[in-house]
Specification:
This protein has 101 residues and is α+β, with helices and mostly antiparallel strands. Helix content is 17%, strand content 49%. The protein is built from one helix and six strands. The chain starts with a helix and ends with a strand.
């Protein structure tokens, strides 16, 4: 790992430790896991229904397997489905979530 990758990875860990909360990650394949991640309930407006989506910032090393579309996350008793994933080269990802009805 280069010094840049190491620095960004350390920053990601600090952000998750400082601002994260425990969430239940429910992958389509495999068992559930409690992980620490940063949750933002309303991130962006969408043109299509339901109109807004939430995001979850997670360190990929904290998950048993790489996230995939269709995985679910339970946060504060509310269930969300992953519909998009933006991973970076330094081992973190932003998961775009829609609330499950």
């Amino acid at each position: 790992m280069t010094s840049w990758e190491s620095a960004v990875s350390g920053l990601n860990a600090a952000v998750v430790n400082a601002f994260g909360r425990e969430v239940l990650y429910l992958p389509e394949a495999g068992g559930p896991a409690t992980v620490r991640a940063v949750f933002q309930a309303v991130r962006e407006a969408e043109d299509a229904s339901p109109g807004v989506y939430a995001v979850l910032f997670v360190r990929l090393a904290d998950l048993a397997a790489a996230p995939v579309r269709g995985d679910e996350v339970e946060i504060g008793g509310t269930r969300y489905k992953v519909f998009d994933i933006e991973a970076d080269a330094e081992g973190a990802a932003v998961l775009k979530l829609r609330q499950v009805s």
